[in-house]
């Protein structure tokens, strides 16, 4: 047993646990076990009844507002289990400060995170706040609505229907994001050459409607990852990377990103892949597994997402990751989804379907494509044809120029070239 983001051990009862109560209440909840040392060993507590009263009194006297928690005695009256639930009246403060968990540590939140907790406690999203600029125009949005769903009349009632305007606060931040000119960041695109030291092109789309940013990013994509093949009298479009996958990645980045962060969505274009990095990790209430499997979708910017949906830029909410995976089902290399606390990265590889591989070689290729250098001991257990055949197949793939072999003897490792 070890400490995690939602589990902490306390060998004794000191005021330091109150910071963790604040953190659990402000975010996803968690458990504190008293009478357990940092290594997970049960040490026990003396006078368990008094210890429970001490914990309860410390919480009630020190955390504001009152958090939701339960106290249980476990392990033959040796340890106390304090379960703290995520609260609705955020921020929960200890000595006028709010805390969060950073892996297994409890730290004070910064100014940005504190403001988010305040909004969360009031059930208000950033996109619903009044936009600081109220002198806005929407020609791009009007044109897209007319083009996509044949809306001829465009006025403030249209914006009210889209939850972009109300008579009390005027335009909100979602409206600002869709306005022709705004102060929001956008997308920074870099096209690299043979290495990251060679930049062939860099272009930034910002301070304009996210609809315009979306379309311009697609135009750059088409320049590098689409081409035409002449077959007789016909021209046939070929894709190095599925445009539908890139559309989903960009739409997801715009819809789900944290817009209160002054950072661009970063798109890195290489010969063999595209990386899309979006500021802001997953919103509270959804796990990485739920996000990647499509079991649950929580919209950070639902008003903006609603406009993208009406315009046909996205299909059904929460299916973007699944659709990207489906587009690569027949490909030798799968897309990669990397979720961290502050970013979400999607890697779209170039389509590789004709490498002249045997069926057995394709199995090894897919295994190696998901990781970096691997020794034979980490490859053989995942294939059905044994270590000797696996080694021979890797040598054959080296001869084809597909696999790179590094090291010798037991230090030999393999990687896609």
Distance between the termini: 40 Å
Helix content: 25-40%
- Overall CATH class of the largest domain: Alpha Beta
Low-confidence stretches: none
What is the rounded Rg? Answer: 27 Å
Q: Choose one word for the global shape.
A: flat
Write the CATH architecture name of the largest domain: 2-Layer Sandwich
Strand order of the largest sheet: 12-11-15-16-18-17
Q: Number of domains in the coordinates?
A: 4
Total helical segments: 13
**What name does CATH use for the topology of the largest domain?**
Heat Shock Protein 90
Beta percentage is 15-25%
Structural class: alpha+beta
Keywords:
417 residues, alpha+beta, Methyltransferase, Cobalt-precorrin-4 Transmethylase, Domain 2, Heat Shock Protein 90, six-stranded mixed β-sheet, four-stranded mixed β-sheet, 13 helices, 33% helix
How would you characterize this protein structure?
- By secondary structure, the chain is an alpha+beta fold.
- It has four domains: 7-121, Methyltransferase, Cobalt-precorrin-4 Transmethylase, Domain 2; 127-178, no CATH class; 187-349, Heat Shock Protein 90 (2-Layer Sandwich), CATH 3.30.565; 359-416, Winged helix-like DNA-binding domain superfamily/Winged helix DNA-binding domain (Arc Repressor Mutant, subunit A, Orthogonal Bundle), CATH 1.10.10.10.
- 33% of the residues lie in helices and 23% in strands.
- The protein has 13 helices and 21 strands.
- It has helices at residues 17-26, 48-62, 111-121, 139-149, 156-161, 173-178, 210-225, 243-256, 288-293, 302-310, 320-327, 359-369, 386-399; strands at 7-10, 30-34, 63-64, 69-74, 79-84, 93-94, 97-102, 105-108, 165-166, 170-171, 187-192, 199-205, 226-231, 234-239, 265-269, 273-279, 336-339, 343-349, 374-375, 403-406, 413-416.
- Strands 12-11-15-16-18-17 form a six-stranded mixed β-sheet, covered by helices on one side. It has a four-stranded mixed β-sheet with strand order 1-2-5-4.
- Helix 7 (210-225) runs antiparallel to helix 8 (243-256) and helix 8 runs antiparallel to helix 11.
- It is flat and about 90 Å long.
- The model has no long low-confidence stretch (mean pLDDT 90).
């Amino acid at each position: 047993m070890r400490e995690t983001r939602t589990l902490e051990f306390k060998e004794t009862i000191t005021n330091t646990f109150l910071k963790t109560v604040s953190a659990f209440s402000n975010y996803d909840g968690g458990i504190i076990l008293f009478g357990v040392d940092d290594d997970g060993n049960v040490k026990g507590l003396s006078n368990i009844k008094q210890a429970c009263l001490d914990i309860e009194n410390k919480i009630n006297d020190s955390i504001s507002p009152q958090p939701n928690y339960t106290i249980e005695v476990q392990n033959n009256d040796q340890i106390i289990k304090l379960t703290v639930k995520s609260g609705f009246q955020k921020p929960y403060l200890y000595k006028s400060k709010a805390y969060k968990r950073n892996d297994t540590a409890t730290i004070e939140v910064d100014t940005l995170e504190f403001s988010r907790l305040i909004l969360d406690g009031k059930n208000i999203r950033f996109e619903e706040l009044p936009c600081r600029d109220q002198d806005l125009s929407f020609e791009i949005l009007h044109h897209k609505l007319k083009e996509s769903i044949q809306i001829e009349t465009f006025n403030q009632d249209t914006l009210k229907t889209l939850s972009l305007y109300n008579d009390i606060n005027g335009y909100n931040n979602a409206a600002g994001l869709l306005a022709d000119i705004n102060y929001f960041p956008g997308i920074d695109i870099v096209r690299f050459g043979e290495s990251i030291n060679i930049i062939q092109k860099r272009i930034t789309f910002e301070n304009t409607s996210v609809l315009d940013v979306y379309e311009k990013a697609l135009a750059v994509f088409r320049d590098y990852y689409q081409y035409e093949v002449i077959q007789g009298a016909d021209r046939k479009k070929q894709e190095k990377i599925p445009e539908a996958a890139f559309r989903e990645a960009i739409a997801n980045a715009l819809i789900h990103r944290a817009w209160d962060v002054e950072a661009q969505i970063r798109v890195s274009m290489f010969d063999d892949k595209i990386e899309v990095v979006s500021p802001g990790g997953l919103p509270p209430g959804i796990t990485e597994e739920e996000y990647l499997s499509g079991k649950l979708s929580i919209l950070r910017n639902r008003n903006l997402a609603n406009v993208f949906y009406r315009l046909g830029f996205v299909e059904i909410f929460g299916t973007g990751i699944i659709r990207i995976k489906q587009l690569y089902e027949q490909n030798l290399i799968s897309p990669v989804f990397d979720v961290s606390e502050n970013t979400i990265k999607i890697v779209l590889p170039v389509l590789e379907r004709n490498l002249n591989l045997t069926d057995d070689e394709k199995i090894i290729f897919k295994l190696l494509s998901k990781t970096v250098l691997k020794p034979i001991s980490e490859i053989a257990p995942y294939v059905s044809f044994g270590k000797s055949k696996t080694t021979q197949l890797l040598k054959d793939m080296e001869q084809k120029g597909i696999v790179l072999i590094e090291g010798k003897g037991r230090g030999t490792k393999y990687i896609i070239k």
